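Researcher: Structure prediction, please.
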Amino acid sequence: MTKMMPRDSSASGELVQSDSAAMAAAATAATTVVGKLLFPLLTRTNYAAWAMRMKYLLRANNAWGAIDREASSKVDKGKEEMAMTIISQSIDDSTLLRVVEKETATDVWAVLRSMHVGVKRVREARVQSLCSEFDGLNMGHAESVDDFAVRFTSSRGSSVSLVMGWRRST
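Model: Predicted structure follows.
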């Protein structure tokens, strides 16, 4: 089922199509409200989930090409501005001040990735932390199988996103 989500736009009052799963994902975790559209807010601990939500949001607004320049070599100025606007609405003020000098959405995305995925020693520390978390992953006596599966999947997702970030940066 496709629902229409109003988007605040000074240029037009057009609607952005969004399915209910994307809307539910956008409504979870930390969010910031701009007009009537929810943007996921990047925090110190949610980069992997934030990046996935942002990818979906940017794709829904036809602006992902401004980030993934391999998919499209020439980026429309409007898409570039849309991507920059969406990203700027999804980060806090102190992070915005760190990326303000970047001219393209690709550059901003790369800085945010390096800030949160980090350099080699930070990644190694995160791998160590994830290994410890995984080693201690046991199903509790009162815990349902579904709850344990959610914790396991979350741990696996963090590991996969760390490895994928590592591969992109090497």
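Model: The mean pLDDT is 73.
Researcher: Thanks, that helps.
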